[in-house]
Design a protein that fits this description.
Length: about 140
């Protein structure tokens, strides 16, 4: 007696659609995690920039105390200008004159309503903004 015909069992595995769905889900999770990491980095950079500006305000005040006048630019904190009798620097290094995003810190002399002010344009590197894009302005 002959055995009845049985087709070969198909091999187990995933279909192309199932694989695409899994890849999309993994991609979404990675994108969400990357967004959270970048957001946290910008928040920490914002706090670091605020601390950095406050420290630079102290350095400008030290310069003023030593020389008797405010510096023409922040570069005078690193290298003695020709007209700076009493200069006891360097008060800081060139790296500290850039914010955590690599943009030069603005020095305004005179400031809006103070002798001077220091400005960091923050994460968006443009004037204005909200949240971590909001400009940081520090005055003595």
């Amino acid at each position: 007696m002959k055995r009845p015909y049985r087709p070969m069992a198909s091999q187990g595995g995933f279909t192309l659609i199932e694989l695409a769905v899994v890849i999309l889900l993994i991609g979404g999770i990675v994108a969400l995690a990357a967004n959270n990491i970048v957001g946290a980095k910008n928040k920490s950079n914002y706090k670091l920039a605020n601390t950095q500006l406050n420290l630079l305000v102290q350095k400008v005040s030290e310069y003023q105390s030593d020389v008797g006048s405010l510096p023409e630019s922040l570069d005078a904190l690193v290298k003695a200008p020709a007209n700076a009798d009493g200069w006891l620097g360097p008060y800081t290094n060139e790296q500290q004159l850039k914010d955590p995003w690599g943009v030069a810190i603005e020095y305004r002399n005179p400031g809006t309503d103070a002798e001077f002010e220091l400005v960091c344009l923050a994460a968006d590197k443009k004037a204005g903004g909200d949240g971590v894009d909001k400009d940081i302005v520090v005055k003595p």
